[in-house]
Amino acid sequence: MIVPVSEHLKLVVSEDFTFCNCLLIEDKQRGIIETGMDKNLLSSIEPHSIDTVLYTHHHFDHVRHNEFFPQAYISIHGLDYPALTDFNLFFHYNSFDQWKELMPGYDYEEAAYQVGLTREEVIRSWHINGTFENRDIVDFGNTCAEIIHTPGHSAGHCAFWFPREEFLFSGDICLTRVGPWYGEIYASPEDMINSINYLIELKPSKIATSHIPEICKDGVERLKRYRDRIYKRDERVYSYLKQKPADLHELAGQHLIYKIHPTPFVLFWEKLILLKHLERLQNQGLVEKFNNKLYRAKQGGWL
Ligand SMILES: [Zn+2]
Ligand SMILES: [Zn+2]
Question: What fold is seen in the domain 231-297?
């Protein structure tokens, strides 16, 4: 489905969660933000005549299919670029090198195969020509996109601001009911909070994201609710540990982040995100680790 945003902007909406929405810029120059759309949408946007591809971040659901854009100049923020240069770095940036430790009894290869994350598929998506930085402007003719560095989801995650249209494409600050996600080594809930606060200050009148099928007119309110879920997760983890000490695996079984774990990856992310909250709560002096693996709430904490 292709949804018009303004005269020159169109949202290409994918239906499957392992793909993403892309923003098409039809101007003197043709551009697209993200290439990870459903394969059946690819031909309808004529990828061979796209001049510029921009990525919000390095995740596979966003960069897949970039082999269909052979003429385009393709770029990403410098902090995410290394993840798309070497398979070991890709593994590290996605925290897959922690799989063995965090997911005993689950075979990584089998789980990766289920979601199409095989080595061959991933390496096909590594055609990057350059990098950009915060505040760079990309001019398509009548349309200008301003790059806003919004770390949190990944270190180099960026949103794209179209000032004339007062329109924001916020990537994986995705406004879905399962977000925010900060389950990789260089992700950070603190950065996520700061990035969302920055986007709220822009007062966008319309927001689209990589994973919801609509253009939001109440985006500022939704951004606030989305940000506040991070604090609610802190509270849930702390409340559980107030009842009893627990290790990471027991905490992950309480579904404090995700209501269901339909694939091993969701359980893996639950654990990675829990680790970020445990680190936050330890930094705030509310939780401590003992016996090298158990966590407990400290006396006299909050709540
Ligand atoms: Zn992502
Ligand atoms: Zn995504």
Answer: Arc Repressor Mutant, subunit A (1.10.10)
Return the pLDDT at 302: 60
Give ion ligand 2 contacts, CB < 5 A: 61, 172, 210
Which residue positions in the chain have pLDDT lower than 70? 300-303
User: Where exactly does CATH 3.60.15.10 map onto the chain?
Assistant: 2-226
Q: What is the number of the ligand closest to the CA of 156?
A: 1
The two beta strands, 137-139 and 144-149, are: antiparallel
How far does the centroid of ligand 1 lie from the alpha carbon of residue 61, in Å?
7
Ion ligand 1 neighbours (CB, 5 A) are: 59, 172
Radius of gyration of the chain (CA): 20
Handedness of CA 143, 227, 82, 283 (dihedral sign): positive
Ligand nearest to the CA of 174: 2
Which tens digits make up the pLDDT trace of 117-140?
888 888 888 899 999 999 999 999
- Please give the distance, rounded to the nearest whole angstrom, from the Cα atom of residue 114 to the centre of ligand 2: 17
**Contact at 8 Å (CB) between 275 and 248?**
yes
Between the CA of 3 and the centroid of ligand 2 the distance, in Å, is 19
Domain with CATH 1.10.10 in the chain: 231-297
Q: What is the pTM of this model?
A: 0.95
Architecture of domain 2-226: 4-Layer Sandwich (3.60)
